[in-house]
Automatic annotation (TrEMBL):
The keyword ATP-binding applies. This is HTH-type transcriptional regulatory protein TyrR. GO terms for molecular function: ATP binding; DNA binding. One of its GO terms (biological process) is regulation of DNA-templated transcription. PANTHER family: C4-DICARBOXYLATE TRANSPORT TRANSCRIPTIONAL REGULATORY PROTEIN DCTD, TRANSCRIPTIONAL REGULATORY PROTEIN. InterPro entries: AAA+_ATPase, AAA_lid_NorR, Homeodomain-like_sf, HTH_TyrR, P-loop_NTPase, PAS, PAS-like_dom_sf, PAS_fold. Residues 18-69 form the PAS domain. Gene3D superfamilies: 1.10.8.60, Homeodomain-like (1.10.10.60), P-loop containing nucleotide triphosphate hydrolases (3.40.50.300), PAS domain (3.30.450.20).
Length: 465
């Protein structure tokens, strides 16, 4: 009996020692740790997170993330995204204290496939976050809630990882990607995560008339041209001193201004129009374009030396159609944003989400945001259905299926049948087809039964029935 008690005491001692060691590790991690259960209820936060967020653990323990978001503690939650998509998700959000944080939530599943725990790794983006950040152009794909954003795809994970690495050095950065992918959001993320003490100045090189662009960039002295302010005016490079200047649409910069920009970047000094004084600047340059600058260099419409100056750290953001895993999390995010803004409580059916997933999104995230807002504003029903999406996205003739002369529900039905058959023929299993379609396997099986599709016949036919 004594030996058994001694063994139990030894096991208990080892267990307690392991728990203490794990507690010490969690409390001394440089990353913030935020743990919730599978329902989103806060279980624990470490000291690092308390310091990052400016909140105490006792304020959060036992509270559900839905309530914390509703009460304004957080603008968004990675845990809620994980619960919705049952997969890892990354969110940049604002705490009620004004802190800007980046959280990556990872689900832990039990043996039955249910989420039992969500582990959030959190990074501080706002030790030097500047609420006075200036911008000349407000045309941003994420222009709500201080430009929070969410993503789930591995592709965007790599983009953000590279952006955070680039933020630690002062090298010039070139962000590449189609219109609407969120180039300005990544530029702002780099600035927020950097040690820059100045502001974030954005200037759209395509939005300002050529005759004004030079004075906006470099400033001017008094009386340098008709209409100039008599006291003169500092340019954007001066205003961005000790901070970041974001040159969006840099491919549209006229060739004669490219030469002047090159000199400013090389010499780290600017001379105002009509002036002779050299003004020293310490400004990080982030440029962005949706054009092929290398091709422009070959054609002579963009200076090669300038290209190499700004292309020290290139960051390419893939289009939304190449990272479809981000579509559903973004829909949930924008739905919450616009429901809150317009005081609605609207939701999308699984069928509408399926259509969103299959759509090409030529306008990328900006188009997705626009469509979600439009549907929430113009749809009278609380539940947005497939026919509403078909009408908004003009999907009345897609994949050879026409709704002309017929009703939209029938068009949606025919579209779903075609997509299901195509996916089954390619992947030859409901599991693979469901993954391709972005839906659960059980949902796909229900749809096969609903439409009375012959699974075996589909697999052995060359053409869709």
């Amino acid at each position: 009996m004594t030996n058994k008690l001694e063994k139990l005491e030894l096991q208990l001692y080892k267990a307690n020692t392991t728990i203490e060691m794990l507690n010490d590790i969690i409390e001394n991690l440089s990353d913030g740790i935020y743990l919730t259960d599978g329902e989103g209820t806060t279980l624990r936060v470490n000291r690092t997170y308390e310091k990052m967020a400016g909140l105490k653990e006792k304020e959060l323990i036992g509270k559900n993330m839905k309530d914390l978001v509703k009460e304004g503690y957080f603008s968004e939650s990675a845990s809620l995204q994980v619960m919705r998509i049952k997969a890892p998700a990354t969110v940049m959000y604002t705490v009620k204290t004004g802190k800007k944080l980046l959280a990556k939530g990872v689900p832990v599943f039990d043996d039955e496939g249910n989420i039992k725990l969500i582990v959030n790794n959190v990074w501080d983006l706002t030790e030097i976050y500047n609420l006075e950040s200036q911008t000349l152009n407000q045309e941003m794909p994420f222009d709500k809630k201080d430009k929070d954003f969410v993503f789930h795809s591995e592709a965007m994970d790599k983009v953000v990882e590279l952006a955070l690495k680039a933020s630690k050095v002062n090298s010039n950065i070139l962000i590449l990607g189609e219109s609407g992918v969120g180039k300005d959001v990544i530029a702002k993320l780099i600035h927020d995560a950097s040690s820059c003490r100045g502001g974030f100045i954005k200037i759209n090189c395509a939005a300002i008339p050529e005759h004004l662009l030079e004075s906006e960039l470099f400033g001017y002295e008094q009386g340098s041209f008709t209409g100039a302010k008599k006291e003169g005016k500092p340019g954007m490079f001066e205003l961005a001193d000790k901070g970041t200047i974001f040159l969006d649409e840099i491919a549209e910069l006229p060739i004669h201004l490219q030469a002047k920009l090159l000199r400013v970047i090389q010499e780290k000094e600017v001379i105002r129009i009509g002036g002779t004084k050299q003004i020293s600047i310490d400004t990080r340059v982030i440029a962005a374009t949706n054009r092929d600058l290398e091709e422009m260099v070959r054609k002579g419409s963009f200076r090669e030396d300038l290209f190499y100056r700004i292309n020290v750290v290139p960051i390419k953001i893939p289009p939304l159609r190449e990272r479809k895993e981000d579509i559903i999390p973004l829909i949930h995010y924008f739905t919450n944003v616009f429901n809150k803004e317009y005081h609605f409580d609207k939701r999308f059916t699984q069928g509408t989400l399926d259509l969103f997933y299959r759509y090409g999104w030529k306008g990328n995230v900006r188009e997705l945001q626009n469509v979600v807002e439009r549907l929430i504003v113009v749809t009278d029903k609380k539940i947005v259905e497939e026919e509403d999406v078909v009408e908004i996205l003009n999907l009345k003739n897609i994949g050879g299926i026409s709704a002309k002369g017929g009703n939209l529900k029938e068009a949606v039905k025919q579209l779903e049948i075609k997509l299901i058959k195509d996916a089954l023929k390619i992947h030859r299993s409901t599991r693979g087809a469901a993954k391709k379609l972005g839906i659960d396997q059980s949902t796909l099986v229900r749809k096969i039964k609903k439409y009375k599709l012959n699974y075996d016949a589909i697999l052995h036919q060359d053409d869709a029935l």
